[in-house]
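Key idea: predict the complex, not the pieces.
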Amino acid sequence: MDHGYAEGLCRGFKSGILKAADYHNLVQCETLEDLRLHLQSTDYGNFLANEATPLTVNIIDDRLREKLVQEFLHLRNVSYQPLSTFMDYITYGYMIDNIVLLITGTLNQRAINDLLPRCHPLGTFEQLGGITIADTPAQLYTAVLVDTPLGPYFKDCISEHDLDELNVEIIRSTLYKAYIEDFYNYCKEIGGITAEVMCDILAFEADRRAFMITINAFGTALTQDERFKLYPTCGYLNPDGLQELRRTDSYEGVRDVAARYPVYKSLFDGSGTNLGDKTIEDKFFEHEVKLNMNAFLRQFHFGIFFSYLKLKEQEIRNIIWIAECISQKHRARNMGDDMMSYNGGVALAMKGKECVAIACDKRYGVQNRTIATNFTKIFQYGDYCFVSFCGLATDVSLLVVLS
Amino acid sequence: MGTSYLTIGGLGASVGLLIYAGLTYMLTNYGFRFDIGWFLLAISPYQWALVGIALAVSLSVLGAALGIFATGVSILGGGVKAPRIRTKNLISIIMCEAVAIYGLIMGIVISGSISSFSATRIEDLALKYRAGYKLFGAGLSVGLCNLFCGVCVGLVGSGAALADAQNSSLFVRILIIEIFASAIGLFGLIVSILQSSGSNMAD
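Result:
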């Protein structure tokens, strides 16, 4: 009840999330300029108005994320305890991602100035720039991270091993496990509707991570016990499911473990590894979106702020996916009419008074190299039918031979 | 966590002290000192009546304030992205305000029944005490009823504002719920008028 303003504002933002009709329009777009035009009529408005004309997917991604960060920070600025602590907890996840990004970048000899702009703006903290100086996790902790909010999460992964590629992923998973369990306990402490809504969402997130770690670890050097240490314990799988997951060796084993929990059983049953099926990651995303939408059905709790952020992120992923598809289609247009695509050509047909005429060029070329000028592209089929094919020359030859 | 330890500690200490005091009185044969009847008679009827007025007004205003707080912030928050809701939802605030007005009315009515008396015989004094208790009861009933009514109307009004921001056809339906909610404040007013009607402290 205390946070009515922030809640009202958040619900207002949520009502601007794109609906099915908006996605329908976006999918019909041919170019990124069309995409920009369609986004203008939604809640996004003129956020791309000042961009230079060769619009790329990266620019769109940056602007979308910037807008989301602006909205989240505005909500954070108008909130006070305990909502402000809750929103700080949400940002710790992004801090973990930024730390891992910087460590990996340093390992690959990238300059700090290249890496800092790629960090997620919600996860910045003062000591972020100092991460690159550390060599081992212990050094990282004592020199840089002990004063940050992530300090307590580090005690499980302090070791004297050097930071290398595999180790960094294990650090990320360990940090995230500590973070999600801490967040879960904090939500339980707040109690009330927040605890009900958030603990459900966080438990699903924990189980999803356990499943994905298991599936992705098949075939790598990660042993079963090391894997087990990375599973977050605040989900519904704890403790029996996690023990079972530790012992599985194959995707079928994971499916069997999931079969004992009705919700996960339905997710795994709906997915498959064939071409047309949805993958298990897609099903997990769908379920997460459903849980987040349900959070908005109840009033006077903090879960809507978390859910709003996640739903907006999913929307950004959707828009970028559509933008990528548009730009790919642009680059590999159908191997047909455009000369620069491969062969190309032009055909013209006209109806006159009791006659028809059809004409085409006889050029055979490969993009801008002309090879021959006697390539026939008009063929007669029956007494009254002439057809002209101007597409890929091999396809034309095949059609002619077949007919 | 520190504050809850403090409150539990304080609560435990005071309960312990009360039990200790009670046992001391009882076991040393001074139990008669704990006399509720004496307590009720020692307080003058004026005190009862005036505390009744205070409760009537203050608890009603508290309920209205909590209600207006709950509704007001939701209207502000929802009004940022949906400015059309701002004027229509002031009806919810008016309904919360009505609750405070009930308390004001009862305060005036009760204070009209108070007047000085100079009775000395026990039969007359008994009537004055009766008036005092009745006025106290009237004030308490209207105060508590309006407290809960105000909070209820406020929470429903908050829901109405947020629902209106999403879908304008919902506002009128939720307003009906608010009307039922404000009816319970009216019940408190009616009962309190009945209680204070027969009482008169004049000689």
